[in-house]
Input
Amino acid sequence: MKEIKVGILGLGTIGTGVVKVFQKNSELIQQRLGARLTLTKIADLDIITDRGIEIDPELLTTKAEEVLDHPDIEIVIELIGGYEPARSFVLRAIANGKHVITANKALLALHGDEIYAAAEAKGVEVQFEAAVAGGIPVISSIKENLCANHIRNVQGILNGTCNYILTRMTDAEENFDDVLKEAQEQGYAESDPTFDIEGVDTAHKLAILIALCFGTRVDFNDIYTEGITGISAVDIQFARQFGYKIKLLAIGKMGYGKVEARVHPTMIPVSHPLADVDGVYNAVRLVGDFVGPVTLHGQGAGMEATASAVMGDAVAVARNLLAGAPVRTPSLGYPLAQRKDLPVRPMDELIGQYYLRFAIPDQPGVLAQLAGVLGTYDISISSMIQPERQVGGAVPIVMMTHEAREADIRSAFAEIDAGGLVREKSHLIRIESDLF
Output
């Protein structure tokens, strides 16, 4: 029986999960593949710590080159994370003619172009199903099943930490800091959660989705990125009154020769397909011109779900090798020569509905002045809530707008905040009501 040898770089949480799949389901994989996937070498700086599984010491090494330069290893699984040395290791594996599987969304978001080009030139595969939405088969669906569709819109809940925090804030009516601490205690948030709560992790994944869906590249620095640290329990309560939920969304849209690429807290109607995606779950919703709307929902992170995606890629690469057709599908689902270079639409050009919250002094005439400034910038109000209570010595005023330009909202905020009409900085949340 044909044997295909695999090496792993990184024996952290995901690497340990991949080893578990090899140990538990190797017979199943062999039956479905018609060949043996053999785990040949595992490299990690720490090969002493107990991972809760038994690993043959002969498989372990602290030297990455024993995987990268091994003459018999055909597939290298990179699970180190970060930018370096992951980038150098992946490029070295490619240069050695090895196929690469990675779960490293940060690496692909910033250095994907270099990696894809190197793989295409060498005639090897780079697969990365686990890099976006963990165990949910998003990447393969876009590259394979939906490849005959123009995809113009993609929305995603792509970070389980943020989704857990917002879900708890909604259900338990707790504030952000308390829920973050709870998430850290339960292992849903890192001790340093910055990449998650500031939206950076989600933006990494959106960069990959845009390249796949729209056939264009987007510079990571051009993705508007805003986290959830500014969302308060008050915002959650008002959203509920208006019939909305707040989610951290990755949003990509293509139209009129430009691409929208943005990550930010978003109000969506309770009837929206993503509104009930709660806890640590992820979901991606996209629409194809023929297939229509498609929503993929499941576990977006964790050892087992992510390891499942990694091993799915390994089997896919192995099948191509057995068929004598490596690189049957290009890394992004299309040859790099076919990629279009489209500009990213500036946020100032965004047109949509907004939730606006102001903290004004309880004095006659202030609300009229506030409305006057908004009117000056062509911002029309569709509804408003003015509770008969004070928060921090000020009365919260909440407004929902009709469609307005982001630039006009920003200009109005600058005038309102500088003019002494409010007791604290004005706050906005963008609204996505389109169910497409």
